[in-house]
C-alpha cells in the first residue's frame, strides 16, 4: 500500500466523529491492507513496534524540525519550523504546511522522480532509524527522516511527522482497533481482546484473525521475553471482599514498583516495568534473584527498596533505581532492591492465565522458595484486619484482597483484585509545561505545569513548585529540558512524557486551567518513572474525586 493512500484513509478516519463509523473505516482499511496489515494496524495506533516492545524511535522535536526544514528547502530553518509549530500547535499541521520534496528533494534521488513511498518502506526505514546508536546516529536519523519527508505529499507528511514524534492522535484507540479487527475478519471481539491481552501485538493478531480466524486467535500463547500488561486493582474494603466472594485471598501490599520477570534458563532473563519498559539493566538484583531457576517462568511482583535491616523503604527509593542507565553499581550500593513475587503467569511451557489465583500461587511456591508475598485465605473481616495490622507493622503499604478463584486478566482493572484505599490521596499527572526559576534557581526549571489525561489530549490542572529539593530540581531540569517545545518569556511548553505524583489538599473549580479544576496546595511527591502519560490520572477520575468529596 502506498503511504499516501494510507494517509488519505487516516485523514478520512480522523475527520469522522461517530465511533461506529470510525470502526468501520478502520475495518475497511484492514481488509484492503493486504500484506501490509500488521504494519497498518500498528501505525494507526502510532506505533512502529508492537506494544510489548519498548524500542523507541528516540526522535525528539529538534531532530524532526531539522529533517523537515531540510526537506522544505534552503529557505526554511529548524527555527522556522519551531516558530510555525508555536502557531499551529501540532507538528502534523506544520509538516503539512511546508512545501516538502521540491527540487532539493529530487536532487537527492538523482533528479529522477522517486518511486511512491510505501507503508512497508516507511516501516523499514523507521526501524532502521530506531536501531541507530552511537556517534553519527543523530545525523543518520535526520538523513532517514529527510529522505522520507522528501517523498511525502502534504497529508502523508502530516501523519509521518505525527508518527515519528508519537503524536498520532487520530481518535483511534486500542478498543477501536480490536473492534475493527473483529468486524473486518468476522471474529468475536472478545476473542480478539483475549489474544491481544496474551500477545500485546495488534499487528500479528490482526493477521491471525485474517488468516486463521477464531481458531488462530484462540491459539495465541504467552511467550517468555514478551511482556504482558499487568493486572490492576480497584480500591475496596474488607467488607466488600467478604461480601463478594466465598473466601478472600489477603496479601501484603508492598510499596514498590511493579515488575514482570521473564526468565528462560536456556536464554536470558528480562525484567519489565509496569509500562512494559525493559528495566533489566537497571535492576541486576532481580535478575540474580531468579538466576538459579531451571525452568522458564513469567513472574509478576513488586520491586521494593529495603534498608540495611531488610525493612521496606518508601517506593520513591525504588524509583531512583528505575530506568537508570549509568552508575547502576553505585546506585545499587545506595539503594538495595528486592523482589516480592505475588503471581505467576507461566511455568515451563504452561500458560497459567486462566488458572485460579490459588493454583497460580501453588505453582509460584513450587518454583520459588523465598521472596513470596505472604498470603492468608480469610473468610471474615477480622482475619483480614489481622493480616493488615501485621503488614502495616512491618512497614508495608497495606493489603491487597483478591478473589481466590479469579483468572489473571492482563491490563484489566476488574473486581477481582481490590486494594485498600490509601489514606492520603495523590494524583499522577503529566508535566506539560514549566517556568524557569529565579535567583539561585535561574538555571533550572522551577515550577511545573501539570495536566490530567483527557482522552488523547492533556488538560491543565495546576502548578507545582513545593516539595522539591535543590538536588531534585537539578535532576528534573536535566530530564525535562530536552522535552521543551516552545518558550515564551520564562514559560515553556513541555512534551508530555514525564509523570509526577502529586499530593494536594483539595480540588477546586477554576477557570484558570483547561480542566476546569485546580489543585489546592499541590506538592511534589515523586516522578512516576514506572508510568507513561497514557497511565496518568484522567480528567474523569478527577471529576469522580470531586463528586465524592462534595
Ligand atoms: N501483593 C500484591 N498484589 C498485587 N499488587 C501489589 C501487591 N503488592 C503491591 N502491589 C502493587 O500495588 C499496585 C496497585 O495499587 P496502587 O494504587 O499502589 O498502584 P498505582 O500504580 O498507584 O495505581 P494503579 O495500579 O491503581 O494504577 C500494583 O500495580 C502493584 O504494583
Automatic annotation (TrEMBL):
Enzyme Commission (EC) number: 6.5.1.1
Entry annotation: catalytic residues: 253 (n6-amp-lysine intermediate)
Keyword Disulfide bond annotated: no
Cofactor(s) essential for the protein: Mg(2+)
Residues reported in the UniProt entry to bind ATP: 251, 258, 274, 302, 342, 413, 419
Keyword Cell cycle: yes
One BP annotation, GO: cell division
Sequence ranges assigned to domain ATP-dependent DNA ligase family profile in this UniProt record: 330-454
Keywords, ordered alphabetically: ATP-binding, Cell cycle, Cell division, DNA damage, DNA recombination, DNA repair, DNA replication, Ligase, Magnesium, Metal-binding, Nucleotide-binding
PANTHER family the UniProt entry points to: DNA LIGASE, DNA LIGASE 1/3 FAMILY MEMBER
Function: DNA ligase that seals nicks in double-stranded DNA during DNA replication, DNA recombination and DNA repair.
Family statement: Belongs to the ATP-dependent DNA ligase family.
Entry protein name: DNA ligase
Organismal lineage: Archaea, Methanobacteriati, Methanobacteriota, Stenosarchaea group, Halobacteria
Amino acid at each position: 500500500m502506498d503511504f499516501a493512500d494510507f494517509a488519505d484513509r487516516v485523514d478520512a478516519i480522523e475527520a469522522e466523529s461517530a465511533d461506529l463509523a470510525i470502526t468501520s473505516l478502520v475495518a475497511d482499511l484492514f481488509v484492503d491492507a493486504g500484506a501490509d496489515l500488521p504494519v497498518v494496524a500498528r501505525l494507526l495506533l502510532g506505533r512502529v513496534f508492537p506494544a510489548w516492545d519498548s524500542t523507541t524511535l528516540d526522535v525528539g522535536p529538534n531532530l524532526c524540525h531539522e529533517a523537515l526544514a531540510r526537506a522544505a528547502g534552503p529557505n526554511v530553518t529548524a527555527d522556522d519550523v519551531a516558530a510555525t509549530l508555536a502557531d499551529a500547535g501540532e507538528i502534523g499541521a506544520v509538516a503539512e504546511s511546508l512545501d516538502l520534496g521540491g527540487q532539493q528533494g529530487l536532487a537527492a534521488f538523482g533528479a529522477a522522480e522517486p518511486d511512491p513511498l510505501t507503508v512497508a518502506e516507511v516501516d523499514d526505514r523507521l526501524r532502521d532509524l530506531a536501531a541507530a546508536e552511537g556517534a553519527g546516529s543523530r545525523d543518520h536519523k535526520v538523513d532517514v527522516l529527510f529522505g522520507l519527508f522528501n517523498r511525502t505529499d502534504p497529508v502523508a507528511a502530516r501523519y509521518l511527522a505525527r508518527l515519528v514524534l508519537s503524536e498520532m492522535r487520530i481518535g483511534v484507540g486500542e478498543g477501536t482497533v480490536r473492534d475493527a479487527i473483529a468486524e473486518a475478519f468476522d471474529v468475536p471481539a472478545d476473542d480478539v481482546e483475549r489474544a491481544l491481552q496474551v500477545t500485546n501485538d495488534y499487528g500479528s493478531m490482526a493477521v491471525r484473525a485474517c488468516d486463521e480466524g477464531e481458531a488462530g486467535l484462540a491459539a495465541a500463547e504467552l511467550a517468555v521475553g514478551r511482556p504482558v500488561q499487568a493486572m490492576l486493582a480497584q480500591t475496596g474494603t474488607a467488607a466488600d471482599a467478604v461480601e463478594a466472594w466465598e473466601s478472600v485471598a489477603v496479601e501484603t501490599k508492598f510499596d514498590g514498583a511493579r515488575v514482570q520477570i521473564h526468565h528462560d534458563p536456556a536464554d536470558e532473563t528480562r525484567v519489565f516495568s509496569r509500562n512494559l519498559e525493559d528495566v533489566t539493566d537497571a535492576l541486576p538484583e532481580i535478575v540474580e534473584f531468579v538466576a538459579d531457576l531451571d525452568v522458564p517462568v513469567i513472574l509478576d511482583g513488586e520491586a521494593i527498596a529495603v534498608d540495611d535491616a531488610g525493612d521496606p523503604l518508601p517506593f520513591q527509593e525504588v524509583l531512583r533505581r528505575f530506568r537508570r542507565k549509568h552508575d547502576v553499581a553505585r546506585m545499587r550500593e545506595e539503594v538495595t532492591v528486592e523482589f516480592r513475587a505475588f503471581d505467576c503467569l507461566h511455568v515451563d511451557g504452561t500458560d497459567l492465565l486462566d488458572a485460579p489465583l490459588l493454583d497460580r500461587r501453588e505453582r509460584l511456591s513450587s518454583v520459588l522458595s523465598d521472596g513470596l508475598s505472604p498470603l492468608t485465605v480469610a473468610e471474615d473481616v477480622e482475619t483480614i484486619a489481622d493480616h493488615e495490622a501485621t503488614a502495616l507493622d512491618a512497614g508495608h503499604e497495606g493489603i491487597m484482597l483478591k478473589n481466590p478463584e479469579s483468572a489473571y486478566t492482563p491490563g484489566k482493572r476488574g473486581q477481582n483484585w481490590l486494594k485498600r484505599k490509601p489514606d492520603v490521596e495523590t494524583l499522577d499527572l503529566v508535566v506539560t509545561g514549566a517556568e524557569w526559576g529565579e535567583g539561585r534557581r535561574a538555571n533550572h526549571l522551577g515550577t511545573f505545569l501539570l495536566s490530567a489525561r483527557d482522552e488523547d489530549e492533556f488538560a491543565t490542572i495546576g502548578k507545582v513548585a513545593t516539595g522539591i529539593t535543590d538536588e531534585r530540581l537539578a535532576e528534573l531540569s536535566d530530564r525535562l529540558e530536552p522535552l521543551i517545545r516552545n518558550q515564551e518569556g520564562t514559560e515553556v511548553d513541555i512534551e508530555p512524557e514525564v509523570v509526577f505524583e502529586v499530593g494536594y489538599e483539595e480540588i477546586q473549580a477554576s477557570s484558570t486551567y483547561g480542566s476546569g479544576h485546580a489543585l489546592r496546595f499541590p506538592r511534589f511527591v515523586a516522578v512516576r518513572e514506572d508510568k507513561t502519560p497514557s497511565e496518568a490520572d484522567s480528567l474523569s477520575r478527577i471529576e469522580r474525586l470531586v463528586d465524592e468529596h462534595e
